[in-house]
Amino acid sequence: MLYIQHNDLTRFVASIFSQIACSSEESQRIAHYLVSANLSGHDSHGVVRVPRYVQMKHEGAVIADQQVKVVSDTPVIAVLDGGYGFGQSVAPQATRIGIDKCKQFGLSAITLRNAGHIGRVGDFAEMAAAEGLVSVHFVNAAGSILVAPFGGVDRRFSTAPFCVGLPRPGKSPLILDFATSVVAEGKVLVASQGGKQIPPDALIGPDGTMGSNPELLYGKYEATGPRDHRKGEGAIRAFGEHKGSGLAVMCELLGGALSGTGATSPGRPFANGMMSLFIDPARIDPTPFFPSEVDRYISYLKASRLADPEAEILMPGETEERYREQRRREGCPLPADTWQSIVECAKREGLSEQLIPQTLREPYRSHH
Ligand code: NAD
After folding, report:
1. Which helix (H) or strand (E) holds 136?
2. Residue whose CA is closest, atom 32 of ligand 1?
3. Tell me: the pLDDT tens digits for 329-362?
4. Which atom of ligand 1 approaches the CA of 318 most closely?
5. What is the model's pTM?
6. Less Cβ crowding at N or C end of the chain, within 10 Å?
7. Of the residues 136, 319, 324, which should be mutated to test ligand 1's pocket, given the most ligand atoms within 8 Å of the CB?
8. Rounded distance between C-alpha atoms, residue 321 and residue 317, angstroms
């Protein structure tokens, strides 16, 4: 494992996107959000994606410096088209519009169609929570067909994430943010490379047998060869049996169909679709009851006897907050292969060697 300080990593990643003709503002945004995913412990949505994003830009699958186009607009609703812009540009623009409308009227909804990969959805719930707003996000990833519905064996869903943010005055918000599949594809990839194994029921084969062998997703592969998820005959399973599968249906239909992106289906280009709702809790309850009741209830939950005395009861968002605290101090850990692939990508794009930052073989200590 290599460790790299998050500011160095952000600067380096931004310089790669500047090199491929993204504006310096957009390059900063892409780097900021990717590194934020690493800091939050979601490495599958972090800088590991740099070579893929660069490739998509070269292929024209994602377009630099897009502004969301307003398709239609009412005081409380905005229908937005991301025009296949980088998700790290168009998703915060869409979220900004939703926040501004909600601040005026206490409630708003936005849909965003045809966004490039928006990464960690929790970032946008955090953006709303920082302004005192509750938000709910239904997202799909049209073109990324990976997950079987409950009762089926064929791939029909994307990993369609769902997210809710709840602000707490003067405290960190609660951020519930997950893929509706048992595991994200990135976790199957890691397992196929000898990393952390996935749960024994994470995948399903064409005969209905559950398993954790990555070949179900990738077909036969060489240890060091590429992984192509179109080659396997199996699928990732939706989480939570019929309930999680039902939530995935809603993410596909609200995030995908209602936004105009389209639900995940063959022949669609990769795009994230999102429907977000924003609610100002202070308009519903201007008294201190809600924030104090949230605090009281969290304490009550945490006072439950533990199933495992070594474990702990955590609220949504707490894991990510702990990772951020640790990784800001110690640096972001990256497997050597991942780092190598980013450095090679930077060199291919002609980035000067001097812009490649130092890494350490152990965590940075707090005196750094
Ligand atoms: P996950 O399985 O790690 O679950 C994360 C959620 O569970 C968080 O809300 C976290 O606070 C909470 N949590 C984690 N451990 C907990 C514990 N011990 N007790 C209580 N709560 C706990 O997340 P995931 O499904 O792997 O998703 C990872 C990320 O991938 C998310 O940020 C998601 O938005 C993103 N994603 C994006 C796309 C896309 O197309 N853009 C697709 C899929 C997923």
Report:
1. strand 134-142
2. 120
3. 999 999 898 899 999 999 999 999 999 999 999 9
4. 11
5. 0.96
6. C
7. 319
8. 6
